[in-house]
# Entry
Amino acid sequence: MLLPPDHPSYPWPGMLFGVWANSVWYWCMDQVIVQRVLSAKSVLHGRGGTILSAYLKLLPPFLFAIPGIIAYVLYPTQVEADPDRSYAILVMELLPTGLRGMMVAAMLAAMMSSLASGMSVQSGRRRGREAKEWEGK
# Structure
């Protein structure tokens, strides 16, 4: 799983320490986050919000990694054959029929939401271009 520290394209020390440095840069230099902290009611609220969001920022790696680890432990041959299907294997093998249907519905709803927001942004850009062209005439 871990490549050697001197690997040319993916050294694990760089990933371990570099990701944290990048995350600190994001949380300390992103203008939206800085504005939100500066607009807090007090210094205590600003610090509390920043610390809470830092703790919440630590959750996604675990939420993404733990299902894959569980799938690898429970179904090693299937996951080794196709690692991209590890979450689907867990859903199909562990959930009962009703929950399986709800999970598929939730995933389809998330996909449709993402598609809808992408299409909305694209149509807004197109409408903005058409409005500028119309105003220019």
